[in-house]
C-alpha cells in the first residue's frame, strides 16, 4: 500500500537572462546599366544585422525594359523658294584691224553671267572672250569684166548651247542669206578649260525672313493617391503640353499588393565579432575586417571583408565600357599599348605615355610648343574641319585644369546683332560661342571635359563703364583684366599678355575668305587681306574682348598691331571683328 504524497519542494532559482537579439536594418541603393544580372539597372537591397551585411543577404530588383518609341511628329512646313538663277549672256562685236591674235579683223565673242539681272552683258560681267579671225587678204587678181550689180547679204548670228550642227559644246550659228539663198555656218565653242582661280566673293544677300517659331514640348508629372478612381493602388499621372496647351494625359498605375507570404521559421540567435587588420593577408591586399559569426548549435563561420582601392570606386563609376583615369573621370577604353592620338590623352595618362613626345612640360602638363590641339573647326575652307591649336595661358594645378586661348582668329562675328546698349551677358556673340561654336568644334566627349566657368565681368576702369552681371559659360572671350598687363588700374596676377606683340593674332584662311573678314591686314600694314593675297601667319587681325568700351554701345578689342582699344565710342558692337574663343579644359 502506497503512503501519502510528501509536500512540494521549494521553487528553484531563476535561470540566467538570454543574450539580446540583434538589430536588423534594410539599406537600398539604386544602380544603372547592365550589372548584377539586370539589363537596365535596378535597386540593390542589403539586410544588415547590427550594421553588418551577413553573407547572402543582398538582393537585386531589376528595372523593366524601356517602352516602345512614340509615333513621329508631323512634318514641318516647306522652306522658302530659293533665289532665281543668273542667266548667261553672249554678245558678238565685229572689229577691223589687228586685235588679239587676229591680224585682219574678225568677230569678238564675249560670254558672261548677268549678275545684275539687267539683261545686258556689262563689261564687268564678261568672264570669257573668244575671237573669230578674218582670213589674210590674197594677192589682187586681174580685173574681170564688170558683173551685174551685187546684192548685200543678210547675216544673222544666234548663240546656242549643247550639241548643234558640227558643234559639241555650243557656239554661234551664222545664217547668211544672199539672192534668196540661205546658208549656215557654225562657230563652235571649245571644250571647257581648266577651272580658273576663285574670284572675289560677292556681297552677302539680304537675310531671309525668319521662320515661324516651333512649339515647345514639356512634361509634368503628379502623384495619384491610393484609392483614387484612376488607380486603386495609386500611381503617377503624366501630362504632356505643347507650349501651354495640354495635348495628352497618361496614368501609370501601381500594381496591387500581393498576398502575404507564410511566416518564416524562427531564426537562431546569432552574434558577430569583428576584428580589423592591415596589410596583405587573408586574401586582401589593403587590409580589411575579419568577421566571426556565432550561431546557436552551429560551428562558427569566418568571413573577411577587404578594403577597396581608390581605383575600385573609380572603375565602379565608369562601368565596363570606359577607362577610369584618376582625377580625370571616365574616358573611352584604350589598351596600355595603344599610342595616344591627342594631347589631352597624353595629359590624362589614359594610354602609353611613351607616344607623347612633349616639347615642354609646364607644371607637370605635357604641352607642345606651349600649346596643343583640342577639338576641330573650319580653318582652310568651309568644308573640312581641322584640329584647333590652342595657346596655354594658365595651369590651375590644384583643380587639374588648363586655360586655353585659340592660337588663331577662328571666325568673324558681330559682338551684337543690333546697335543697342549691351553687355557680355546678353550679347549675341556669347550665345553663338556657347551653342553654334561649341557644338561645331567639340564632340560630346570633348564637351564633357570643358567645365562651366563662373566669369566676373568688371567695369571698364578707364571709362568707368559697367561690365554687366557675372555669367557662367563654357566658352568665353578674354576681358581687359586678362590682357591689359601694362595698365596698373587692373588687379595684378591676371595678366596673360604683357606687351602688344604678344597680343597679335593671325586670321585663318576660312575667316578671311569664307567669312569675308575686312579687318585683317598683311604683315600689319594697311593692305587688307583677301582671297588673292592671303598667307598663313601673315594676316594679323582685330579680335573682340568681352569687356565694354567707351560706352555700353561699344566693346573693347585688340587691333592688328596688338594695341588694346577700350575707350572707343560709336556703336561698334555691330562691326564684324575676329573671334578667339577661350575655355578651361579638365585633365
Report on this model:
The longest helix is centred in the last third of the chain and has 14 residues, at 428-441. This protein has 587 residues and is mainly β. The radius of gyration is 42 Å and the shape is elongated. The chain contains seven helices and 32 strands. The strands form twelve sheets. A four-stranded antiparallel beta sheet has the order 20-21-22-32, with no helix packed on it. 8% of the residues lie in helices and 33% in strands. It has helices at residues 310-318, 343-348, 428-441, 444-448, 480-483, 500-503, 509-514, and strands at residues 24-31, 42-49, 58-62, 88-95, 106-113, 126-133, 154-160, 171-178, 181-188, 217-224, 235-242, 245-253, 270-277, 288-295, 301-306, 322-325, 329-332, 360-362, 365-367, 371-378, 385-396, 401-406, 411-414, 453-455, 471-473, 520-522, 539-541, 543-548, 555-558, 564-565, 576-579, 582-586.
SSE layout and pairing:
Elements lengths: L23 E8 L10 E8 L8 E5 L25 E8 L10 E8 L12 E8 L20 E7 L10 E8 L2 E8 L28 E8 L10 E8 L2 E9 L16 E8 L10 E8 L5 E6 L3 H9 L3 E4 L3 E4 L10 H6 L11 E3 L2 E3 L3 E8 L6 E12 L4 E6 L4 E4 L13 H14 L2 H5 L4 E3 L15 E3 L6 H4 L16 H4 L5 H6 L5 E3 L16 E3 L1 E6 L6 E4 L5 E2 L10 E4 L2 E5 L1
Antiparallel strand pairs: 1-2, 2-3, 4-5, 5-6, 7-8, 8-9, 10-11, 11-12, 13-14, 14-15, 16-17, 18-19, 20-21, 21-22, 22-32, 23-31, 24-25, 26-27, 28-29, 29-30
Amino acid at each position: 500500500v502506497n503512503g501519502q504524497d510528501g509536500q512540494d519542494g521549494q521553487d528553484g532559482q531563476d535561470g540566467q537572462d538570454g543574450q539580446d537579439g540583434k538589430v536588423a536594418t534594410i539599406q537600398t541603393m539604386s544602380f544603372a546599366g547592365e550589372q548584377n544580372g539586370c539589363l537596365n539597372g535596378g535597386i540593390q537591397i542589403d539586410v544588415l544585422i547590427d550594421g553588418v551585411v551577413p553573407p547572402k543577404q543582398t538582393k537585386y530588383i531589376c528595372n523593366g525594359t524601356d517602352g516602345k518609341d512614340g509615333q513621329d511628329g508631323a512634318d514641318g512646313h516647306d522652306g522658302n523658294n530659293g533665289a532665281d538663277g543668273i542667266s548667261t549672256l553672249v554678245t558678238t562685236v565685229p572689229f577691223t584691224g589687228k586685235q588679239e591674235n587676229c591680224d585682219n579683223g574678225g568677230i569678238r565673242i564675249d560670254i558672261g553671267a548677268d549678275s545684275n539681272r539687267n539683261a545686258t552683258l556689262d563689261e564687268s560681267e564678261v568672264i570669257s572672250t573668244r575671237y573669230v579671225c578674218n582670213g589674210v587678204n590674197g594677192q589682187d587678181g586681174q580685173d574681170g569684166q564688170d558683173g551685174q550689180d551685187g546684192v548685200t547679204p543678210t547675216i544673222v548670228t544666234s548663240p546656242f548651247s549643247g550639241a548643234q550642227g558640227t558643234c559639241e559644246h555650243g557656239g554661234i550659228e551664222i545664217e547668211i542669206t544672199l539672192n534668196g539663198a540661205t546658208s549656215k555656218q557654225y562657230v563652235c565653242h571649245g571644250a571647257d578649260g581648266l577651272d580658273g582661280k576663285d574670284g572675289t566673293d560677292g556681297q552677302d544677300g539680304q537675310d531671309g525672313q525668319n521662320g515661324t517659331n516651333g512649339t515647345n514640348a514639356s512634361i509634368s508629372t503628379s502623384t495619384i493617391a491610393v484609392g483614387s478612381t484612376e488607380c486603386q493602388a495609386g500611381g503617377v499621372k503624366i501630362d504632356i503640353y505643347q507650349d501651354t496647351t495640354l495635348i495628352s494625359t497618361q496614368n501609370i498605375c501601381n500594381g496591387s499588393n500581393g498576398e502575404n507570404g507564410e511566416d518564416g521559421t524562427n531564426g537562431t540567435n546569432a552574434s558577430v565579432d569583428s576584428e580589423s587588420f592591415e596589410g596583405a593577408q587573408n586574401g586582401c591586399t589593403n587590409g580589411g575586417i575579419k568577421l566571426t559569426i556565432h550561431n546557436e548549435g552551429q560551428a562558427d563561420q569566418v568571413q573577411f571583408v577587404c578594403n577597396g582601392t581608390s581605383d575600385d570606386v573609380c572603375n565602379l563609376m565608369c562601368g565596363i565600357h570606359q577607362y577610369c583615369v584618376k582625377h580625370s573621370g571616365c574616358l573611352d577604353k584604350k589598351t596600355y599599348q595603344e599610342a595616344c592620338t591627342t594631347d589631352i590623352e597624353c595629359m590624362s595618362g589614359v594610354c602609353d605615355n611613351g607616344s607623347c613626345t612633349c616639347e615642354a612640360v609646364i607644371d607637370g602638363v605635357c604641352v607642345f610648343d606651349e600649346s596643343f590641339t583640342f577639338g576641330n573647326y573650319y580653318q582652310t575652307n568651309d568644308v573640312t574641319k581641322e584640329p584647333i591649336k590652342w595657346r596655354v595661358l594658365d595651369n590651375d594645378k590644384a583643380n587639374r585644369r588648363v586655360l586655353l586661348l585659340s592660337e588663331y582668329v577662328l571666325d568673324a562675328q558681330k559682338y551684337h546683332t543690333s546697335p543697342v546698349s549691351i553687355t557680355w551677358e546678353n550679347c549675341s556673340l556669347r550665345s553663338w560661342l556657347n551653342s553654334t561654336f561649341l557644338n561645331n568644334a567639340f564632340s560630346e566627349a570633348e564637351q564633357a571635359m570643358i567645365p562651366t566657368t563662373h566669369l566676373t565681368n568688371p567695369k571698364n576702369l578707364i571709362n568707368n563703364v559697367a561690365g554687366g552681371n557675372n555669367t557662367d559659360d563654357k566658352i568665353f572671350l578674354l576681358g581687359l583684366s586678362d590682357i591689359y598687363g601694362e595698365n596698373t588700374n587692373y588687379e595684378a596676377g591676371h595678366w596673360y599678355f604683357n606687351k602688344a606683340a604678344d597680343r597679335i593674332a593671325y586670321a585663318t584662311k576660312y575667316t578671311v575668305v569664307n567669312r569675308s573678314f575686312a579687318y585683317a591686314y598683311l604683315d600689319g600694314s594697311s593692305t587688307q587681306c583677301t582671297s588673292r593675297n592671303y598667307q598663313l601667319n601673315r594676316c594679323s587681325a582685330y579680335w573682340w574682348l568681352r569687356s565694354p568700351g567707351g560706352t555700353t554701345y561699344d566693346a573693347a578689342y585688340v587691333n592688328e598691331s596688338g594695341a588694346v582699344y577700350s575707350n572707343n565710342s560709336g556703336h561698334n558692337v555691330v562691326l564684324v571683328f575676329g573671334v578667339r574663343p577661350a575655355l578651361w579644359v579638365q585633365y
